[in-house]
Amino acid sequence: MTASAALRVPGTEARAEDPRALVIRGLVKEYRAGQPVLRGIDLVVPGTGLTAIIGPSGTGKSTLIRCINRLVQPSAGEILFRGEDLAKLSGRPLRRARRRIGMVFQEYNLVERLSVMENLLCGRLGYVPVWRAWLRRFPEADIQRAFDLLDAVGLSGFATRRADALSGGQRQRVGIARAIMQEPEIVLADEPTSSLDPKSSVEIMEILSRLAAERGVPVVVNIHNVALAQRFATRIVGMSGGHVVYDGPPDRLSERDLRGIYGGENWLE
């Protein structure tokens, strides 16, 4: 029995027949020859809900997220999304595919000297002519959408504030709104709560969960906090040693499963 099959909950895996699903087959990533970080990942991310990826540091969670949006080039395997293999794209087709993938970063990746509104409008750069972006002359519909999203993430009234004047939680809210400005078909979040205090972490997960539920956009979150994953995810994927070792609903994640993912004892006490 392989490591990927050992702890997987039967019958709970996402269905590849869903046309909105992200299907990963045999994904391998080696930064050094013969030392794979991802060891043949097979995974189907459903076209709805919030999927949380948990596991110890160094097991490949961030690498998996970054392979999906091609910030990292996979060594082998397929990443199938909406009829395309993302692993094989380059040039203009890759740029077009990235427009459909919203990304929320651990360290926010905002332009610190720009206002909140200007940072949100960066999410439309792939959709407007270069001259409009250069002159910051975005369509009125984009500006109104940005105001609506600021309200949705609890930052109405912050449009003109500079990004470097915001708290960590506020910056991450801007990062989420910027990702949604792209009108993505999937959102990836790489450790979006790791730099935040507990209250802000809950608020960020609430926003991501609401995004998935209300806007019908699948969200994939790489997260260290197991309790937050269990509270907000509709599905949990556990990784260990570059393999998927758990794939199922939060309420069936047992102490045995957690020992298989992290090692140790008494996880649920």
Automatic annotation (TrEMBL):
Q: What SMART domains has UniProt attached to this entry?
A: AAA
Coiled-coil-forming residues are none
List, alphabetically, the InterPro entries matched. Answer: AAA+_ATPase, ABC_transporter-like_ATP-bd, ABC_transporter-like_CS, ABC_transpr_PhnC, MetN_ABC_transporter-like, P-loop_NTPase
**A single Gene Ontology molecular function, please?**
ABC-type phosphonate transporter activity
Top-level taxon in the UniProt lineage: Bacteria
Q: Where is the ABC transporter domain?
A: 22-266
Q: Does the keyword DNA-binding apply?
A: no
What is a single cellular component term in the Gene Ontology annotation?
A: membrane
Q: Which UniProt keywords apply?
A: ATP-binding, Cell membrane, Membrane, Nucleotide-binding, Translocase, Transport
Query: Keyword Cell cycle: yes or no?
Result: no
By its UniProt entry, which Gene3D superfamilies does this protein fall under? Answer: P-loop containing nucleotide triphosphate hydrolases
Q: Which family does it belong to?
A: Belongs to the ABC transporter superfamily.
In Swiss-Prot or TrEMBL terms, this protein is called: Phosphonate transport system ATP-binding protein
Q: Which organism is the protein's source?
A: Methylobacterium brachiatum
